[in-house]
Amino acid sequence: MTTFVLVHGAWHGPWAWEKVTPFLHRAGAHTLVPNLRDGDVGLREHVEDVVTALGTAQDDVVLVGHSYAGLVVREAADLRPDRVAHIVLVDGWAGPDGSGMFTLAPDAFVQTVRSWADGAQVPAPPPAAFGITDPDEAERLLPRLRHQPLRTFTDTTRLAGAVDRIPGTAVHCRPQSFPFDRFGKALGYRTLGLDGPHNVMVTHPEPLARLLLDIAGDFENKKPAP
C-alpha cells in the first residue's frame, strides 16, 4: 500500500490538495496532508512539519511537494530517507545543498517578492499568479490564500546527501512559468510534463492524481520480490 504525503506550496494550505485526494483514495492509496506552519517561521520549521508527518506513515511513502515545497520535501527526505520511497516535485523549486527560493528564482521574482513583503510576512499574490483564470475558482481561492513567512524564501536547504539516493520524478506544468523541468533534470530526476497551470492540483486534479498513481506503480513494480 502506498501513502502519498502531499505538501502544499507557498501561500497555500492543506486544502490545495482537496480535489486530488479523493481520486487517490478511490485507487486504494492513503494520504497525509501536513499543514506547514505560518507566523514567524522559516524553512527549518516547515521541514519539521513534514518530518513529523513522515513519522506517522505506515506504508511506502511517495513524498510530493508543490512549488516552494520542493525545497521542503527534499530536506525532509534527507533527514528521514528510511521513510521515503520516491520524491515527486510538482512544478517544484529544488536544487543541491544550499538552494533556496531566492537562490533559484530570477532576480525579477526576488525583487517583486521583497517589494510585497510587509515586515516578516509576504501577502499572497492574486489567484491569476498561480494560473487560476476561472472567475468562480478565483473567488473560491482568494480568501483561502494566506501570508507566507519571508524567511521561507530567504532560508536555504541543508542537505547531507541522503536525499540524492532516493529516486525522484519532476512534474512540470505546461506551459511552463519557470524552468521546473531543468531543476528536476539537474537532480537526476525523471521529468514528466502535464498540461495545466501552476496550480494544476486545483484545475486538473484527476490527471494529476492519475500521474501520481502511475509514478507510485512504477516504483512498486521495481521493488524486489520478498
Strand numbers in spatial order across the main sheet: 2-1-3-4-7-8
**Gross morphology:** globular
Structural class: alpha/beta
The number of E-state strands comes to 8
**Rg:** 16 Å
Distance between the termini: 15 Å
Protein topology:
Layout: E1 2-7, H1 21-26, E2 30-32, H2 43-56, E3 60-66, H3 69-79, E4 84-90, H4 101-104, H5 107-116, E5 121-122, H6 135-141, E6 148-149, H7 151-154, E7 168-174, H8 180-186, E8 190-195, H9 200-203, H10 205-222
Parallel strand pairs: 1-2, 1-3, 3-4, 4-7, 7-8
Antiparallel strand pairs: 5-6
Helix pairs in contact: 2-3
Description:
The chain has 226 residues and is α/β, with parallel strands linked by helices. The protein has 10 helices and 8 strands. It has helices at 21-26, 43-56, 69-79, 101-104, 107-116, 135-141, 151-154, 180-186, 200-203, 205-222, and strands at 2-7, 30-32, 60-66, 84-90, 121-122, 148-149, 168-174, 190-195. The protein has a 6-stranded parallel sheet with strand order 2-1-3-4-7-8, sandwiched between helices. Strands 5-6 form a two-stranded antiparallel sheet. The longest helix is centred in the last third of the chain and has 18 residues, at 205-222. It is globular.
